[in-house]
TrEMBL record, chain B:
One of its GO terms (cellular component) is plasma membrane. Belongs to the binding-protein-dependent transport system permease family. CysTW subfamily. The lineage of its organism: Bacteria, Pseudomonadati, Pseudomonadota, Alphaproteobacteria, Rhodospirillales. Keywords: Cell membrane, Membrane, Transmembrane, Transmembrane helix, Transport. Residues 63-271 form the ABC transmembrane type-1 domain. PANTHER family: INNER MEMBRANE ABC TRANSPORTER PERMEASE PROTEIN YDCU-RELATED, INNER MEMBRANE ABC TRANSPORTER PERMEASE PROTEIN YDCU-RELATED-RELATED. GO terms for biological process: transmembrane transport. Its main location: membrane. It is found in: Cell membrane. It is a multi-pass membrane protein. This is ABC transporter permease. SUPFAM superfamilies: MetI-like (SSF161098). The chain crosses the membrane at residues 6-25, 63-89, 95-116, 154-176, 207-230, 250-272.
Length: 380, 283
């Protein structure tokens, strides 16, 4: 009896000691909607745990849109100001936030230490909305906006911004988007509009910022065109709101995020007939980035985590198959890891050549803000 | 005497500290921030009304919109709560009175964000409400209209805040001396007349307190306008969130916050003045 008690106590003590050892906690903070936090919690963390059984992953979702990235930026800034170690080891942030994070020294230049960095070919790994971020970021995935349309309501959807203007006049209220306050698909539609009607896409995307473009005749003409276009559209409540309204047949065409579209369709939350098209001359998309805070105390572990997350296998199974994003690393490295059907599905409606021709970046930050401000002043 | 005073002070100290640290400090911080523009090119941050100029020029419409939406909602809530409270007090069919008394409180327990999400599918053009009306043959599909705009915001606010005001108003009505009502009945006054000429004047202070609290709550809700209609014009809270999220511009957001405080402050002032006129005791 005593022996049993003794051995039980011994086992418990051992368990306690080993659990005390397992207390390395790697904190991953991710901006973005719930699916981002789900991806890290349900998919990445268990995979990482397989090779690092002594590490516990703590996941923090900081919320959708720029607000989510800003929450991470503010926390890191506060910790830097207080000269304290950062309690975030890996962060996933939007493109718009990352430039400021690099220039205010919040991030570690880590990609030289990551073996998977050489698999990345996209420009987005070097340049984030006009800021040189080379060495500080690895793209988690690339996302894209496009028009979703319901072929039951519109057999011949407008295939370019030019066609859309005439089409919206003939079919008032059949096009719907969410303005600029309520999710990035609407902002992306407006950016695409500016590219199409100012003809200044390369200036707006590559910079440098010239104040003279903002408010010149082309700029104001595009904004005035958007104002009269808006009279014939339906305003939807948010990114999800556009998909909801398409689903209920209240609008026939609207801009959406491609990944959200496929996920909803896979979950049976969206009419399976609804299709995608990427209008000419193109619409913006954006990557999410993996970054390592400069003050993280587990930087080596953080880099190992990011290496796993950007490995071909994880990019194939997690990013493409499970979550319907375009991969962050060069697609050619996914061969052999990816089910052909999953790959084809990603390109059913939008062909790879259309994507390479019409997938644009968002404007650099000063044009981005100028565009939003002009919209508030001149369009609304 | 002194030691008991000290003990009393100790008792309120935790609450006072929490209010100071969690509310007064951030409030003052935001207030000051509204009047400051950040340093440019190495210069010092300085006092300026620039944030208010931006707020008024870009969001003047939204400020008016907010006042109108909250005003209409408050009027509808007042009317609704008087009618429900009146029926609970004067209703003669005991069954219906009980059913109404049990039903009207339900929205109290539903958070704003959930209410907004429900309304988003309920009020849409091809949403649940119109679906039921079309199925019932009351409307044809072509006649339906969506309410996902300012009307949706008002409907959600009224639906959500009506029970709260009614709870207070009905309580005050139940506590009234019934002899005044009976006297009215004896001289042949109808029920509506009793309600508006005898009961409502007596419960006015309670109604106003409840409405002031409701207005303050509606002014601060972000989820409802964002989820039902985020397009311009929209409510001040949406623009505050937009300034912070899209431009990282806390200055203008704080200026909008100060304007919002001024509006609620003015309403509170009206209420306090009323109290003073009635003998220095706001109820």
């Amino acid at each position: 009896m005593k022996l049993t008690t003794f051995s039980v106590a011994g086992v418990m003590a051992l368990a306690f000691v080993s659990s005390a050892q397992a207390e390395t906690v790697l904190t991953v903070a991710t901006a973005g909607s719930q699916n981002m936090a789900d991806y890290v919690t349900d998919f990445l963390a268990p995979k990482f745990h397989e090779t690092h059984p002594d590490v516990t992953i703590r996941v923090i979702g900081t919320g959708p849109g720029d607000a989510g990235s800003n929450a991470i930026v503010e926390r890191l800034e506060a910790q830097k100001g207080a000269n304290a170690a950062s309690d975030i080891d890996v962060a996933v942030v939007h493109q718009k936030a990352v430039g400021g994070m690099v220039s205010s020294d919040l991030l570690e230049k880590y990609t030289a230490k990551a073996d998977t960095a050489k698999l990345v070919s996209s420009d987005a790994a070097k340049n984030a909305l006009g800021v040189n971020v080379e060495g500080y970021v690895l793209p988690m995935f690339q996302s894209q906006t496009a028009f979703a349309y319901n072929p039951d309501l519109v057999a011949n959807p407008p295939k370019s911004y030019d066609e859309l203007v005439g089409w919206a006049k003939e079919n008032p209220k059949a096009f719907g988007y969410n303005g600029i306050r309520n999710g990035m698909s609407g902002v992306s539609f407006v950016a695409g509009w500016m590219y199409a009607f100012t003809g200044e896409e390369s200036q707006m995307v590559n910079g440098p910022f010239k104040e003279s473009l903002v408010g010149d005749a082309k700029w104001n003409g595009a904004m005035a065109g958007l104002k009269s276009f808006n009279e014939n559209v339906t305003f939807t409540p948010g990114n999800a709101g556009t998909l909801d309204m398409l689903n209920r047949g209240e609008i026939a065409v609207g801009p959406v995020w491609v990944d959200m579209f496929y996920s909803w369709q896979a979950d049976g939350r969206l009419n399976p007939n609804v299709k995608l098209l990427l209008p000419k001359p193109g619409m913006p998309g954006q990557p999410m980035y993996y970054v390592v805070p400069a003050k993280s105390e587990h930087q080596d572990l953080a880099v190992e985590f990011i290496e796993l997350a950007t490995s071909p296998e994880i990019q194939a199974k997690g990013i493409v198959e499970k979550f319907n994003w375009y991969p962050g690393i060069d697609a050619k490295y996914l061969e052999g890891h990816l089910d052909q059907a999953a790959w084809d599905k990603l390109f059913t409606d939008i062909k790879p050549e259309e994507l390479s021709e019409r997938a644009k970046a968002f404007p650099i930050a000063p044009y981005f803000n100028a565009m939003l401000t002009s919209y508030e002043k001149n369009v609304e | 005497m002194n030691s008991s005073r000290f003990a009393g002070f100790l008792l309120v100290l935790p609450a006072l500290t929490v209010i100071g640290v969690m509310f007064i400090y951030p409030l003052s911080y935001s207030f000051v921030d509204a009047f400051i523009v950040p340093a440019k090119d190495g210069g010092a941050a300085q006092f300026s009304l620039q944030n208010f100029a931006t707020a008024l020029s870009l969001y003047g419409d939204d400020i008016l919109f907010t006042i109108v939406i909250v005003g209409i909602s408050a009027c509808l809530i007042a009317l609704g709560s008087i009618l429900i409270g009146g029926y609970l007090t004067l209703g003669e069919n005991r069954f219906f009175v009980r059913v109404l008394a049990a039903l009207y409180r339900w929205p109290l327990f539903i958070p704003f964000i959930v209410a907004a999400q429900c309304m988003r599918t309920f009020l849409a053009k091809n949403g649940l409400m119109n679906g039921v009306l079309v199925e019932a043959g009351i409307l044809t599909p072509l006649q339906t209209i969506g309410f996902l705009d300012w009307r949706g915001i008002i409907i959600t606010f009224v639906w959500k805040q009506l029970p709260f005001v009614t709870l207070l108003v009905a309580g005050a009505m139940a506590a009234l001396d019934r002899s005044t009502i009976d006297a009215g009945r004896d001289v042949g006054a109808g029920r509506l007349r009793i309600l508006f000429q005898i009961i409502v004047p007596q419960i006015m202070p309670t109604l106003i307190v409840a409405l002031v609290l409701s207005i303050v709550i509606m002014m601060s809700v972000l989820s409802v306008p964002v989820m039902i209609s985020g397009h311009s014009p929209t409510m001040i809270t949406v623009e505050m969130a937009f300034r912070v999220n899209s431009y990282n511009d806390y200055g203008t957001a704080n200026a909008l916050g100060v304007i919002s405080y001024c509006i609620t402050g003015a309403i509170a002032w009206v209420y306090l003045r009323r109290g003073v006129k009635q003998g220095g005791k706001p109820v």
